Model the fold of this input.
Amino acid sequence: MTVHDTLIIGAGFTGLGAAIKLTEAGVADVVIVERGDRVGGTWRDNTYPGVACDIPSLLYSFSFVKNPSWSRAYPSGAEICAHIEEMTDTFGLRPRIRFGTEITGLSFDESTGVWTAKTKQRKECRARTVVMAAGPLADHKFPDIRGIDSYEGHKIHSAGWDHDFDFAGKRVAVIGTGASAVQIIPELVKTAEFVKVFQRTPGWVLPRLDARMPAAVQSLFAKVPAAQQLARQALFWGHEASATALVWKTPLSSVVAQLSKAHLRNQVSDPWLRRQLTPDFTPGCKRMLVSSDYYPALQRDNCKLIDWPIATLCPAGIRTSDGVEHHLDAIVFATGYDVHLAGPPFPVTGRGGRSLQQEWAGHAQAYKSASVHGYPNLFLMSGPNSGPGHNSLLVYVEGQLDYAVTGITTILRDDLRVLDVRADVQRRYNEDLQRRLTKTTWMSGCSSWYLTADGFNASMYPGFATQYLRQMRHFRPSDYEMVARAAQSSDLVTA
Done:
């Protein structure tokens, strides 16, 4: 069976970015496996009404794939998908992609230094190196709510939208008031007879300063790429500065709270509704929300905010803890994803038969979010503690791509069988990381998807994007055990 140089799992932004960077570095034998029938990842899968990015378009794209034609300051999901499709074609990646291929297991053979990926289609793919680019938000889930299976109406998850269901004349509930919900609700109230929004915890909401990108600006970006790069840098540093308010609790955190409260006062006149919508946690502890039409939607005659806790679902709808039974034709679950904090959604077996899922069942850890001890030649994208709380995820991903490319080219150039981060290096890195995390807003007491059930933060990076990128620029061979293919497993090759 053919052994490829690199196997990339996932054809979203990160997987395609990895293929581009590896090709530019001279790695020609790259295969991408994708369980869907198109590229796009989470942006392909999320098609709910109003889906859009809450990061400006100039930042929510790779710096090495310029798009001068963004139509708005904040891109819609459809426009992002179109950009990803264009990127795939521009760099000639389609022949490398195996669509409709779902990985069911990944295992490492230490004697050969080869990873074997098993698929749902009962085929195998072997490679010397692997880039895990499936993403932490690849799979959605329905919440664990009592009586959910008893409900006889129509159930829809925001990440698996049913476009055949007609909301016209329907009584609809939305469970959740996070980033997806604040985009869905303004669209639902336009068509549904009545919308009830079930809120567990209000979020901090800032106005969405969206606008069409003038044709003159698009033309300038096309003719003078440096102008677009300058605009991107301005946005980057603006977001970077916000870390002083959102990553750590500082006097600037109260400034963000006041700006959010001013936005709330400006859009909501009813004092009781304002009280219901005012958070009691530090800005940044949960994901900040960006919307200018969410509050107006809640005040429509056909919309009502419910902040009584849900006691149970019942055949007719939802029963809240005040004893009221809400009869509903459909329930929209805007309740997030099955975030893979305990490893990918398939078994990963490393050296000596060790299991990544078992090792991460307690707390997920990696070195620089990219390498895991005991799993050689494997590079993670959006791995543990790589999430930003203030800037674009793709900025962080670019750092991960450069790090992975350096590791992979080292393996191929030096003909290594094993490149495995040292246990002591990984341990010291994570001890320092967790110490730094204790001082962040994410650990200030609120409940969020950033944390595991026991309060461990395996998601976020406690610092500036510039700090994260700086550490990813340095690939130190001394951090790794390096074994040549020609050597015995006990032999160590030093760089």
